[in-house]
Input
Amino acid sequence: MKTDIRPPSIETADIEWRDGVPCSTRFDDVYFSRDDGLKEARHVFIRHNRLAERFSGLPGRSSFVIAETGFGTGLNFLAAWQIWEASNPDENACLHFVSVERYPLGRDDLRRALSMWPELGDYADQLLEHYPPPVQGAHRLILADGRIRLTLFFGDVLEAWRELDFQADAWFLDGFAPAKNPDMWEEAAINALKGHSRPGTTLATFTAVGDVRRLLSEAGFSMRKTPGFGRKLEMLTGEIPLSTEADGNAGEPVPHSIAIIGAGVGGSLLARNLAERGLEVTLIDKAPEAGTAASGNIQGALYVKLGVEFNDQARLGLSSLLFSQRYYTRSGGDDWHPTGLIQLAYSDVEANRQARFTVRNDYPSVVLRAVDADEASRLAGIPLKTGGLWFPHSGWLAPGMLCRSLIRHPRIHRCFGFDAHRLTPCNGKWHIAGNGEQDVIADRVVICAGHLTPGLIPLANNFRLRTIRGQVSHLPEPSLNNPDVVLCGPGYINPAHKGTALTGATFDLHNHSPGMSAESHRENLTMLASMAPGVFKSPVEEIDPDLLEGKVAFRCTTHDYQPVAGPLTDREGRKLEGIDLFTGLGSKGLTYAPLLAEYLADRITNQPQCLPASLARRVATRRCHRQETSPSEPIGA
Output
């Protein structure tokens, strides 16, 4: 049993197979009934939460939330998924399943356990395909084309209930028997259930232990015993009476109309996410099509620089990276190229940083691992002078093409060529004015306008947002020893595609010229020659920067270089109704945007939130307000 686990890894389950049934050696208990685990799940959790009846009566554009203590083999989840499909709910309804697991099963054990039920094979295959690596914290899995959303929290149950924001319609109280795993059934864990429940929430559990029944009754559930399954004579079921007020609240109503300003990667991902949840979305951009500004590069790398210390910033970066890899694998189509990526130890300073990173952290090798110069060269297919960190499931995308494919949806209404310049609240709606155009009116608006965002915020422009110019260079493939993977360091180069490889980008704090410059091309060439000299077939000095093509774009960054996603608040933290910000993605938009679009869509539709509270605070808008305005720096600069 391995105990020297460093973050972000989490200790996995120790499994022993007894008569074909998985047993935990840590708790000396089985994961499901020896009689028939699937029948037990259906009897205890499906039947006694009346799921078939409640699923079939669910109205359109709504969601049903099941919360579970103890994910284990995922058998209860798959049983709920199967009955959801059989109940034929509205096509725009969504089943959210929120589950916590302190000792997650490894993928091989999970596959072996679920293979016992061939009738669940299609569901199990999807779960196994998206099953996250053993990394602490919350993982959002999107399954069944978005009709099923699984929030899987790897960690302690009390931490999960503190960190996760959801209101359950039904509880599966699973986990090993109270005598085997008392921490799962302690008073604090039981009391936390009420804060995540609403009037009418039901509950079922295989145990009939008196202390558990007493604690659940004290937490507000009306409890009763009922016949159990197999050798267990009794079990417990309960419900919060409709006349009782739960600690949670119903949240804001789902808007009838929503407008998104900005059709870059962030805006396009959010529009598609909301449309797939059944909402009508108006996507606004001053350009004639999506993905033309900062998202208009022909290539973009999927990477994030993880800090030496595993703090909230590193957690957000890792969560975003893992979610985006799953998202693009599922939805990226031909625009996603999972070549793998190497973060090169391109200097003594970076080599030292990576060495400290490796010592202080324990990342599963499926996420990343350190490689020396020889292995890096083999992976890249070209000679490299240094090793680095290998990310096997990263790669590159065509951002502009991705944006244009994302917005092809019947519920996304395009309003392009519209130069939005003012947002005004009126009679509970937002009016978006353009230059000489008829106002766009919506119940809710999200500003995803990149570096143009400060001019649209309907508050005094005192947000700490900065515009940074970046120029990329297009290198003709014949001039290169083309790498097979993305290489990054102070900049990056992608594998050549259709005769061209993109490298860059410059980081120009004081140059705001929209035109390309030979000097910026020269800067990119010098950076690349220093980072990976083996890329060039001939001396870099022989390349004429005046002959290179490329693109200039302007990034929007925040004072702490962390993104912004969530309700717009004033300096005191008061929320403006019906308006959100989604900006500050900087040079990592391809990595951050999928997870943050999912988070914003969760909030807008009043569904369980994929970000834990600590990370939601990390991206909140309030932190970006200036505390005071310097006379030498214009407000909103």
Q: What stands out?
A: The chain has three domains: 15-239, 258-293+401-464+560-624, 341-392+466-558. The longest strand covers residues 465-476. The chain is about 25% helix and 25% strand.
